[in-house]
């Protein structure tokens, strides 16, 4: 990790501590101690395992998409990809660093950068598409709860959905409409053309070459229906494990009356809220969203803060630390 990334990482830890401290300002210490004593650690382990399975299934997606008759990636390298993605997402605004970190991880295994980019974009499109599909389901199950009790979040949730939908649409255009992509490149390079026509022509030719290779690879992958269906199924199951984590935390706190589907739907809505906050990890928005949506499930503020802390440790800080370890380990090149 660079010094800048280390500083950001430390900053996120400090920010998390400040947010937790702020959340504790009105909490009865006795309530928190009681909730901690009654905590069922078996369900906490299940919640952690759900996060581990989520990451392993993403590694399986990577392996499915990379492995062909001529290429293959080892399980160790495949597992490393989602871990460094967690690190990249966790230390950059809007989780923008996840894709570059994954590209670095795949390139280090010996995979061609053009093919690695295609694999990652297709993986990202499928992932975002599954988020949109799950969100539509969550709207049916949990949207009335938000509009009646938390109407101030309605606009934020809908805006998050629209952003994800636009992202998927634009990515599909990049993958399957080279004319539109070429035009976008021309528009983006207009400032370069004003400064230097020579540099413009050089950059334009180089970028178009990469786009054409990328487009060809995307078409090849898109025609591989069997692989695409596998990736869609695995990604859907992967997200189900992630969305179920708050349910296991509620069970750990003795809230056995919680409905699994309803809790998962609310978690889907929280993910939409987090995506709109520019602070790395959605810090602030994540905690507020969780508190607002899950306060009705828990008996007091002490239990709520404890649930929020456990949720953030499992879904955010666990990935950060695992990503640091994965990024620091030496990489053995796969058989490419």
UniProtKB/TrEMBL annotation:
<dbReference type="GO" id="GO:0050071">
    <property type="term" value="F:phosphatidylglycerol lysyltransferase activity"/>
</dbReference>
<keyword id="KW-0443">Lipid metabolism</keyword>
<keyword id="KW-1003">Cell membrane</keyword>
<feature type="transmembrane region" description="Helical">
    <location>
        <begin position="259"/>
        <end position="277"/>
    </location>
</feature>
<feature type="transmembrane region" description="Helical">
    <location>
        <begin position="41"/>
        <end position="62"/>
    </location>
</feature>
<keyword id="KW-0472">Membrane</keyword>
<keyword id="KW-0812">Transmembrane</keyword>
<keyword id="KW-1133">Transmembrane helix</keyword>
<feature type="transmembrane region" description="Helical">
    <location>
        <begin position="152"/>
        <end position="174"/>
    </location>
</feature>
<dbReference type="Pfam" id="PF03706">
    <property type="entry name" value="LPG_synthase_TM"/>
</dbReference>
<feature type="transmembrane region" description="Helical">
    <location>
        <begin position="314"/>
        <end position="331"/>
    </location>
</feature>
<dbReference type="GO" id="GO:0006629">
    <property type="term" value="P:lipid metabolic process"/>
</dbReference>
<dbReference type="InterPro" id="IPR022791">
    <property type="entry name" value="L-PG_synthase/AglD"/>
</dbReference>
<comment type="function">
    <text>Catalyzes the transfer of a lysyl group from L-lysyl-tRNA(Lys) to membrane-bound phosphatidylglycerol (PG), which produces lysylphosphatidylglycerol (LPG), a major component of the bacterial membrane with a positive net charge. LPG synthesis contributes to bacterial virulence as it is involved in the resistance mechanism against cationic antimicrobial peptides (CAMP) produces by the host's immune system (defensins, cathelicidins) and by the competing microorganisms.</text>
</comment>
<feature type="transmembrane region" description="Helical">
    <location>
        <begin position="228"/>
        <end position="253"/>
    </location>
</feature>
<feature type="transmembrane region" description="Helical">
    <location>
        <begin position="124"/>
        <end position="146"/>
    </location>
</feature>
<dbReference type="GO" id="GO:0046677">
    <property type="term" value="P:response to antibiotic"/>
</dbReference>
<keyword id="KW-0046">Antibiotic resistance</keyword>
<dbReference type="GO" id="GO:0005886">
    <property type="term" value="C:plasma membrane"/>
</dbReference>
<protein>
    <recommendedName>
        <fullName>Phosphatidylglycerol lysyltransferase</fullName>
        <ecNumber>2.3.2.3</ecNumber>
    </recommendedName>
</protein>
<comment type="similarity">
    <text>Belongs to the LPG synthase family.</text>
</comment>
<keyword id="KW-0808">Transferase</keyword>
<feature type="transmembrane region" description="Helical">
    <location>
        <begin position="289"/>
        <end position="308"/>
    </location>
</feature>
């Amino acid at each position: 990790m660079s010094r800048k990334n280390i500083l950001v990482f430390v900053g996120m830890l400090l920010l998390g501590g400040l947010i937790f401290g702020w959340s504790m300002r009105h909490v009865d210490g006795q309530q928190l101690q009681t909730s901690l004593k009654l905590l069922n650690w078996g369900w906490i382990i299940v919640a952690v395992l759900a996060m581990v399975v989520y990451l392993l299934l993403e590694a399986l997606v990577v392996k499915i998409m990379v492995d062909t008759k001529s290429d293959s990636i080892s399980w160790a390298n495949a597992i490393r990809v989602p871990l460094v993605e967690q690190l990249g997402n966790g230390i950059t605004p809007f989780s923008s660093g996840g894709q570059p970190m994954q590209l670095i991880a795949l390139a280090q295994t010996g995979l061609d950068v053009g093919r690695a980019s295609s694999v990652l974009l297709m993986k990202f499109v499928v992932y975002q598409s599954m988020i949109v599909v799950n969100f539509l389901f969550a709207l049916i199950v949990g949207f009335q709860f938000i509009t009646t009790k938390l109407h101030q979040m309605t606009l934020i949730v809908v805006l998050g959905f629209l952003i994800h939908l636009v992202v998927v649409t634009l990515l599909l255009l990049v993958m399957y409409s080279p004319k539109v992509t070429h035009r976008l490149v021309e528009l983006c390079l207009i400032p370069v053309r004003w400064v230097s026509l020579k540099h413009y022509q050089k950059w334009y030719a180089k970028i178009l070459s990469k786009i054409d290779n990328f487009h060809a690879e995307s078409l090849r992958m898109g025609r591989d229906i069997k692989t695409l269906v596998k990736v869609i199924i695995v990604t859907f199951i992967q997200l189900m494990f992630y969305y179920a984590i708050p349910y296991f935390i509620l069970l750990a706190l003795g809230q056995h009356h919680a409905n699994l589907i309803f809790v998962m739907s609310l978690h889907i809505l929280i993910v939409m809220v987090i995506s709109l906050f520019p602070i790395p990890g959605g810090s602030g928005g994540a905690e507020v969203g969780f508190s607002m949506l899950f306060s009705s499930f828990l008996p007091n503020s002490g239990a709520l803060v404890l649930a929020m802390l456990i949720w953030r440790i499992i879904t955010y800080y666990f990935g950060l630390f695992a990503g640091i370890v994965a990024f620091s380990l030496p990489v053995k090149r796969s058989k490419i």
